Amino acid sequence: MTVTIIGGGLAGCEAAWQLAKRGISVKLYEMKPEKYSDAHHSPDLAELVCSNSLRSDQLENAVGLLKQEMRIMGSLIMACADATRVPAGGALAVDRNKFSRMVTEKVTSNERIEVIHEEIKEIPQDEYVIIASGPLTSETLSQTINAFVGDDYLYFYDAAAPIVTYESIDKDKVYKASRYGKGDDDYINCPMNQQEYERFWNELVNGEIAELKCFEKEIVFEGCMPVETMAKRGKQTLLFGPLKPVGLVDPKTGQEPYAVIQLRQDNNEATLYNIVGFQTHLKWGEQKRVFQMIPGLENAEFMRYGVMHRNTFINSPRLLNAAYQTNKNKKVFFAGQITGVEGYIESASSGLVAGINMARLLYGKEMLIFPKETAHGGLSHYISDSSISSFQPMNINFGLIASLNERIRNKKEKNTKIAQRAISIIEAIANDENNE
Question: How far apart are CA 421 and CA 31, in angstroms?
Answer without folding.
Answer: 41
